[in-house]
Fold this sequence. Notes:
It contains eleven helices and ten strands. It is of the alpha/beta class and 349 residues long. The protein has two domains: 9-125 and 307-343, ATPase, nucleotide binding domain (Nucleotidyltransferase, domain 5, 2-Layer Sandwich); 138-302, Nucleotidyltransferase, domain 5 (2-Layer Sandwich), CATH 3.30.420.40. It has a five-stranded mixed beta sheet, sandwiched between helices. α5 (172-182) packs antiparallel against α8. It is globular and about 65 Å long. The relative contact order is 0.18. Zinc ion (ZN) binds next to α4. 5'-O-[(R)-(carboxyoxy)(hydroxy)phosphoryl]adenosine binds next to α5 and α6. Residues 30-317 form the Gcp-like domain. Pfam families: TsaD. Fe cation binds at residues 118, 122, 310. It catalyses: L-threonylcarbamoyladenylate + adenosine(37) in tRNA = N(6)-L-threonylcarbamoyladenosine(37) in tRNA + AMP + H(+).
Amino acid sequence: MRPLRDSDVVLGLESSCDETAAALLRADGTILAEAVLSQLEDHTPYGGVVPEIAARAHLAHLPGLVRRVMGEAGVGPGDLAAVAATAGPGLIGGLIVGATLGKGIALAAGVPYLGINHLEGHALTPRLPGVFAGGLQFPYLLMLLSGGHCQCVKVEGVGRHVRLGTTLDDAVGEAFDKSAKLMGLPWPGGPHLERLAASGDPTRFVLPRPLLGRPGCDFSFSGLKTAVANIVAKGVDEQGRADLAAGFQAAVAATLADRAAHALAMVPDATALVVAGGVAANQGIRAALTAVAGRAGLPLVAPPIRLCTDNAVMIAWAGIERLRAGLTEALDHAPRPRWPLSDLSVTPV
Length: 349
Ligand code: KG4
Ligand code: ZN
């Protein structure tokens, strides 16, 4: 494979959960075209993501999204330098759709295929020059806060990530969604809960702050959810729901801030604290983490929301970083529903 040039174009595909996405990126980080189709409406009647519905929706929509981004960018298959598709972790049906389409396009265009770890996609996003001036330098601390993932990760290099802590039970977005449901809010509850919290008094209900002050940076949210359930069971009026939402959000923000401070102490050479995942959209949580990063003399880097949540730009960019490191996959590379960040092929140090 010839070395990557800045003008080379990479196609990225994302289909690991309930967002169908395609993007075209130039190797210098310029986004030529991007498209995301949320399946929210397909899953809302069921109050959560239904894997079979997700897989069928990816199959129905991903080829059309690829045609759309290629049309918008004026790029044909012959202009591609590589194709990168999410190969895990995630729902196996969607992963098979994206990886198989990615391999097919790569084969037809005669270019390399990259099977990207979705978590590495989130982890490398702040290295996009448009997200952080010039691209963030390694190492940095990533807090991945989404509906499916809740981890503190030291990002040391391409393929080199150390998970410092994870959740012992629910992911933080899951805790938001379950608590919001208890408060009678629609799914996914995070944004609704944040809106409700704005008119609430966070001091009215004293909720647990799980693992606060404990060594390390693991998370636990099931006790907090149980506390919310117990209060709701006793009956709360409209103002009570707002107060409960505000109390819940304050407890989560305080816990995340404590965990982030512990994690930063474990990475003394970090260049920044980075947040990613849908929960990073929460302003209260961002403010708490900005304060923690500030105390360590570091910036809080939060990619724009569309690049924090699931998208294909991050998959194409991870592909570009991996191509630069000389890493590609063979066409028999199998998607992996479970694929820890610690299990990646790595750049020679
Ligand atoms: O990263 P994401 O879009 O999808 C994955 O889970 O992979 O994250 C979705 C999660 C949901 O749990 C949603 O409720 C939560 O992020 N979320 C929020 C907010 N916006 C989205 N949680 C709290 N506050 C928000 N503003
Ligand atoms: Zn994600």
